[in-house]
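Priority: medium. Attachment 1 of 2:
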């Protein structure tokens, strides 16, 4: 059993693609002589419990059939189990979500055949992971994340997109649509950030902290990120006009927005964010909570299958 792959499937991922395409995906596993056991998630956070439970029963190889949110939950299950070191677990992804930003960093193919071929070859990489402590209803909470966390405008757009997904209306263009539709209800927030020994203040439009480069369905929000350098990358977009935002969206996709005068980039091992009015947080696309927020890096702590 310990050599088998435990497959966690989110049936709702990609507007139901997880459920609809599973028979096709399972046939490719069988054709490649990859032994596996499967479980479908039933609700939010279920994948955290499933990963923890089955690792504790002896599984050390896990496949996520889903999107960034399901992947995020499984990462948290890996870090919350106590049976093995986190780097003793191998984690792979078959992308069926709407964003698939983590997989974009590692050239995970969108075709099921291509993704399963990587699983068979089992070429692995050990990446850093972020740990974030945030607040929800004034109580501190904690999550791990493997890709990118967003705050301010980024978190608002993610929140609206997640609500649409919950109603079955989410799709690949939801995030892009919400970037524009949310502009007129958003106000910049006053912030104070501590990055290791450096302190900065200002009015923020949006900011990202992370391990990898992409979020929001292919936006290169952290173009300088290196996934195993032991550092968190941070991009801060300071106060900016709404028309300027609309004209500059395409620059998010190639990372060139960091050359704009309103944008600053930083690196550090620990980052703390405080604000007068609440700044909201999402991590790996999952809406979480608000300031005060504290990030730290856990170097080389997650073993993943890559392209």
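Attachment 2 of 2:
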């Amino acid at each position: 059993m310990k050599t088998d792959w435990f497959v966690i499937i989110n049936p709702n991922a990609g507007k139901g693609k997880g459920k609809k395409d599973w028979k096709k995906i399972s046939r490719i596993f069988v054709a490649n002589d990859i032994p596996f056991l499967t479980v479908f998630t039933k609700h939010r956070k279920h994948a955290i419990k499933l990963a923890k439970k089955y690792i504790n029963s002896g599984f050390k190889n896990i496949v996520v059939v889903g999107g960034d949110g399901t992947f995020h939950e499984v990462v948290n299950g890996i870090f919350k189990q106590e049976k093995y070191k986190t780097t003793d677990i191998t984690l792979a992804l078959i992308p069926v979500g709407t964003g698939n930003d983590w997989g974009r960093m590692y050239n995970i193919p969108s075709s099921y055949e291509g993704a399963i071929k990587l699983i068979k070859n089992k070429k692995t990489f050990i990446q850093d992971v972020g740990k974030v402590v945030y607040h929800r209803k004034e109580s501190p909470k904690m999550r791990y994340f493997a890709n990118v966390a967003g705050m301010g405008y980024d978190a608002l757009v993610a929140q609206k997109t997640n609500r649409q997904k919950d109603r079955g209306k989410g799709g690949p263009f939801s995030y892009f649509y919400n970037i524009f539709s949310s502009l007129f209800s958003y106000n910049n927030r006053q912030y104070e950030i501590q990055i290791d020994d450096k302190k900065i203040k200002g009015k923020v439009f949006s900011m990202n902290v992370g391990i990898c480069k992409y979020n929001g369905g292919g936006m290169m929000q952290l173009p300088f990120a290196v996934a195993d350098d032991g550092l968190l990358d941070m991009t801060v977009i300071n106060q900016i006009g709404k028309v300027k935002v609309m004209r500059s969206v395409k620059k998010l996709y190639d990372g060139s927005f960091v050359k704009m005068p309103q944008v600053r980039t930083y690196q550090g091992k620990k980052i703390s964010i405080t604000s007068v009015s609440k700044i909201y947080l999402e991590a790996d696309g999952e809406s979480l909570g608000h300031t005060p927020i504290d990030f730290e890096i856990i170097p080389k702590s997650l073993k993943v299958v890559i392209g």
